[in-house]
């Protein structure tokens, strides 16, 4: 089979499209024939060697933490999956990923894929959908009637966060570039504003917010400014940063570290099939283009959520 691999950390040119042996499902594992994987910023972070303290990969490594595909083999002790079943999942980040014709997945990370959409495109759901879910509901405890500011809403996580927050009954303000404003309005954002300017104290219509979800890297000063527009008793949750706490105003803060949760992923799939959650895919590329996709991400030119499809699909 074919797989994208890298043998050392580095720029996108470390990614090679190799002929490798097809793996076999061991106990507790499922071999998935990959229909699609999606690019996530963490793929480039791991490849670049920026996350060695968090994810202990071994070389050669196959990237691609999101998988959508069909069950090809079921290992000993696995129940509930049969050959041909359509599945999606967030794979363990230190293991070999889904930028390949086949990938081994622990059975417990897989969920039945949405029936109402293209299987390859459903690889756009697990990592970013779960990140939004865990940030909004597990950490920040967002509930009906609250207000939320989503900073950096135009990306993968932001698209789901806007939809989930709106469906939870929150009033949603989102920062975005003009090109994605219409899409986010359609997804449920109540108020859209441009990128924040931190050179003067933040003054945003609707502040203070019960929850601020920060999806971009911010300096300590910028993060503190975001904490300053959280309402008393509210929550600042970030994907790249957290803090500072403000115990005087009971403002709490946390950084999300996404993990596989098949109950949550099944809930996201159910929403997709019910027509309540739109999976936005900006581009679909052959897996052989993976270096160009990493390059575009490294230079800030990725058009949005990008699906990579193996050549034998
Ligand atoms: N901790 C975790 O578990 C976890 C999980 C998932 C993601 N993350 C991280 O969370 C971040 C978001 O993930 P993602 O998948 O949504 O990434 P993404 O698809 O690359 O989205 C990031 C978005 O932020 C926008 N942006 C950049 N600068 C901005 C600014 N100053 N103000 C407002 N928006 C701005 C970008 O728009 P442009 O097109 O203008 O650049 C882009 O659309 C990434 O850094 C990712 O690594 C962390």
Task: Briefly say what this structure is.
With 313 residues, the protein is α/β, with parallel strands linked by helices. It is built from seven helices and 15 strands. Strands 3, 4, 5, 6, 7, 14 and 15 form a seven-stranded mixed beta sheet that branches. Strands 10-9-8-11-12-13 form a six-stranded parallel beta sheet. A two-stranded antiparallel sheet has the order 1-2.
Strand-helix topology:
Blueprint: E1 2-5, E2 16-19, E3 29-38, H1 41-47, E4 66-74, E5 86-90, E6 102-106, E7 110-112, H2 126-139, E8 147-151, H3 156-167, E9 171-175, H4 181-187, E10 191-193, E11 209-214, H5 220-228, E12 230-238, E13 252-255, H6 262-273, E14 283-286, H7 290-298, E15 306-309
Parallel strand pairs: 8-9, 8-11, 9-10, 11-12, 12-13, 14-15
Antiparallel strand pairs: 1-2, 3-4, 3-6, 3-15, 4-5, 5-7
Helix pairs in contact: 2-3
The structure holds NADP nicotinamide-adenine-dinucleotide phosphate (NAP).
Average pLDDT, all residues: 97
> What ranges have pLDDT less than 50 throughout 5 or more consecutive residues?
none
Bound molecules: NADP nicotinamide-adenine-dinucleotide phosphate
In which range does the helix fraction lie? Answer: 10-25%
The N- and C-terminal alpha carbons lie at a distance of: 12 Å
- Hey, roughly how much beta strand do the residues contain? 25-35%
What class do helices, strands and sheet pairing give? alpha/beta
- Global Rg: 20 Å
Order of helices and strands: EEEHEEEEHEHEHEEHEEHEHE
- Number-wise, the strands total 15
Morphology: globular
Structure characterization notes:
By secondary structure, this protein is an alpha/beta fold. It is 22% helix and 26% strand. It has seven helices and 15 strands. The strands form three sheets. Strands 3, 4, 5, 6, 7, 14 and 15 form a seven-stranded mixed β-sheet that branches. Strand 8 (147-151), helix 3 (156-167) and strand 9 (171-175) form a beta-alpha-beta unit. The protein is globular. 46% of the residues are buried. It binds NADP nicotinamide-adenine-dinucleotide phosphate. NADP nicotinamide-adenine-dinucleotide phosphate is lined by residues 40-42, 127-128, 131, 151-152, 154-158, 175, 177, 195, 215-216, 239-240, 256-258, 300.
């Amino acid at each position: 089979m074919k797989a994208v691999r890298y043998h050392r950390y580095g720029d996108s040119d470390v990614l090679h499209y190799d002929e490798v042996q097809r793996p076999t499902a061991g106990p507790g594992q499922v071999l998935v024939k990959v229909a699609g994987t999606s690019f996530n910023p963490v793929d480039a972070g791991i490849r670049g060697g920026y996350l060695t303290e968090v994810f202990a990969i071994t070389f050669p490594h196959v990237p691609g933490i999101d998988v959508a595909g069909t069950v090809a083999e079921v290992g000993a002790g696995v129940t509930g999956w049969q050959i041909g079943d359509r599945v999606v999942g967030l794979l363990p980040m230190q293991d070999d990923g889904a930028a390949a014709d086949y990938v081994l997945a622990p059975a417990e990370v897989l969920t039945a894929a949405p029936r109402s959409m293209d299987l390859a495109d459903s690889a756009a759901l697990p990592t970013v959908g779960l990140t939004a879910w865990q940030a909004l509901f597990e950490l920040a405890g967002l509930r009906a009637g609250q207000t939320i500011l989503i900073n950096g809403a135009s990306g993968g996580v932001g698209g789901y966060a806007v939809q989930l927050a709106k469906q939870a009954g929150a009033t949603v303000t989102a920062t975005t570039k003009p090109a994605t404003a219409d899409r986010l309005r359609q997804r449920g954002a109540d108020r859209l504003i441009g990128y924040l300017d931190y050179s003067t104290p933040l003054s945003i219509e609707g502040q203070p917010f019960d929850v601020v979800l920060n999806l971009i890297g911010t300096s300590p000063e910028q993060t503190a400014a975001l904490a300053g527009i959280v309402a008393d008793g509210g929550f600042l949750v970030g994907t790249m940063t957290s803090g500072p706490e403000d115990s005087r105003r009971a403002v709490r803060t946390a950084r999300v570290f996404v993990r596989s949760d098949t109950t949550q992923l099944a809930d996201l799939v159910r929403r997709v099939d019910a027509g309540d959650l739109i999976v936005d895919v900006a581009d679909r590329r052959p897996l052989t283009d993976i270096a160009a996709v990493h390059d575009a991400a490294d230079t800030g030119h990725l058009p949005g959520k990008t699906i990579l499809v193996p050549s034998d699909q």
